Amino acid sequence: MALGALRIKEKLGINHRETVEQIKDNPYLQYFIVMSSYINEAPFDTSMLVHCRERISANVVNKVNQMMVRAPRLIKS
Questions:
Q1: If 0-12 CB within 10 Å is exposed, 13-18 middle and 19+ buried, where does residue 63 land?
Q2: Higher pLDDT, residue 60 or 44
Q3: Mean pLDDT, to the nearest integer, of 26-43?
Q4: Nearest to 19 by CA among 36, 55, 43
Q5: How far is CA 42 from the centre of its chain?
Q6: Rounded to an integer, what distance in angstroms lies between the CA atom of residue 32 and that of residue 74?
Q7: Which of 9, 32, 35, 50 could join 19 via S-S bond, C-beta 3.0 to 4.6 A?
Q8: Considering only CA atoms, which of 24, 1, 10, 25 is closest in space to residue 57?
């Protein structure tokens, strides 16, 4: 969930508060971060993103992004 939320934040270029708001309002983003069902409330506090960002570097998020971009090509092979 944390890595997915950080990916959303980086991809959209928004701050922590906006990321939580976007996830709250968008069922597709909730699905992306592996929530089992849609809820119309913040799934976590913005401070969780700060805590996770300190532990998961932007470099790790970028590596995951690159792996996901390559994944469809690996599946077709």
A1: exposed
A2: 44
A3: 92
A4: 43
A5: 14
A6: 21
A7: 9
A8: 10
pLDDT score recorded for residue 24: 95
Residue 62 belongs to domain spanning: 2-76
How many helices and strands in the chain, by DSSP H and E?
Answer: 5, 0
SS3 call for 11: helix
Q: Which of 50, 61, 46 is nearest to 10 (CA)?
A: 61
Q: What is the dihedral of CA 53, 25, 66, 52, to 10 degrees?
A: 10
Tally of domains within the chain: 1
Over residues 53-65, mean pLDDT: 79
Using alpha carbons, select from 48, 41, 3 the residue that is nearest to residue 23.
41
Residue with tokens 């944390």: 2
